Amino acid sequence: MSEQVVEPRARLAYVLGQFPSVSETFILREMRAVQNLGFDITPLSMEPPGEPVHRSAQAFAERTVYRPGPLSWPALASLFTAFFLKPFGCVSALRLVVSHGMRNFGAIKELLSAYCAACYFVARIAPGQMRHIHAHFATYPATVGLLLAEILGVGCSMSCHARDIFTDTAKLLSFKIAEAEFVTVCTDYGAERLQRRYSPLNSEKLRVIRHGLDFVDFKIGPHQDHHVPLIVAVGRLVEKKGFPILLRAAAMLAAEGIDFELAIIGEGPQREELEQLINGLALAKRVHLPGYLGEEDLWAVYRRADVFALTPIVAADGDRDGLPNAIIEAMAAEIPVVATDVGAVGELVAHEQTGLLAQPGDVAEIARCLERALIDRPLREHIVGGALQRVERDYDANKNARELGALFAEVLKLRRWPPTATARGRLPSREPGDVELD
């Protein structure tokens, strides 16, 4: 990560559930793109990294401040330090905790824990490094972000994604939306859900800013033949990904005598269930569960992939995918995509145009789509071309970060956009539509 000299007001704190996290590489890409616009980012993580830190995240990981245990000595000592540094802000934030905790007893534990975390960050980080607080996910990170902003007397914003929109895990969400300077959502589907359910009076705060890829860095390389056609799926091994359905579709392909192998890349609580199902369906010689793969190893698999498949469903608790970032990666890698129409998947996967789309849970239809994607070469070429054109147009991380950066510039009252930073990193040139801000 290149060292930058930025305008003092262009200093952000990002509140994250866990950083780095292999299932949330889109956040890392966003942070890198926003930094390249001239902002300074201090990551605040609620949990330590759960996996080996990939080299692309190393620089941010080294400057990340991690929350200690709520009852640990550092956390308790920070309460006194924060009150000494920001007495009025701490009292104001404590009032929020008490008032909302009294109205919503189920949120008391989260509010108290978040208050301790916010005080810890106030005690550990110079206030000048946190001119605006941005939280990813409207759950616990947004609770911490809201209280941290209250203590510091600065603005806050948040990004909503999937589980925090489609389930009831995000406490006090109406209040968080009302207090935020703006709320970004990565899909139209998610934005419509939030607007209907939580924010009819705050709809002007909702902004759709899509995730994406850095197409400068995302270089998969030419396709390499596998010894048999290779179907690849990538995602956490959890209910909403629908991997048992994909396995049953694979069993139908095998029964029809179609030669293939399937690699399901990822880790999660469903591993044992999937292993048992693979054996029960007599797919042990065809299906592989290699676990989590680092970026370079994953790209090597992409080079050998003939089809990318992801068959998400709506989980029992209502959780579902928005638009899985693995689909964007597969399209950028020029791999034909087979998916199910859940959440916002249909915003990118248009049937027979940018991929093949089946109804969720329809094993036979998924199997037919997989067979077509494996066998029909003209169709493969058509959907690959359409998909690549679409992701390059709408899912460029650097282009989309400019929209987010413009929102930060507005709330921070930066005089110019993009910021007039002196940087040894990549900074964008001014483009039509760039404005000066009062």
Properties at a glance:
single chain; 438 residues; alpha/beta; Rossmann fold; 2 domains; seven-stranded parallel β-sheet; six-stranded parallel β-sheet; 44% helix; disordered C terminus
What does this structure look like?
This protein is an alpha/beta fold and 438 residues long. The protein folds into 2 domains: 4-212 and 397-423, Glycogen Phosphorylase B (Rossmann fold, 3-Layer(aba) Sandwich); 230-394, Rossmann fold. 44% of the residues lie in helices and 15% in strands. The protein has 17 helices and 15 strands. The protein has helices at 25-36, 55-62, 73-85, 87-103, 108-124, 140-152, 163-166, 173-179, 188-197, 243-255, 271-280, 295-304, 325-332, 345-348, 363-375, 377-394, 397-412; strands at 4-5, 11-18, 40-47, 65-66, 132-136, 155-160, 183-185, 206-208, 230-234, 261-265, 287-291, 307-310, 337-340, 356-358, 422-423. Strands 4-3-2-5-6-7-8 form a 7-stranded parallel sheet, with helices on both faces. A 6-stranded parallel sheet has the order 11-10-9-12-13-14, with helices on both faces. A two-stranded antiparallel ribbon has the order 1-15. Helix 10 (243-255) crosses helix 15 (363-375).
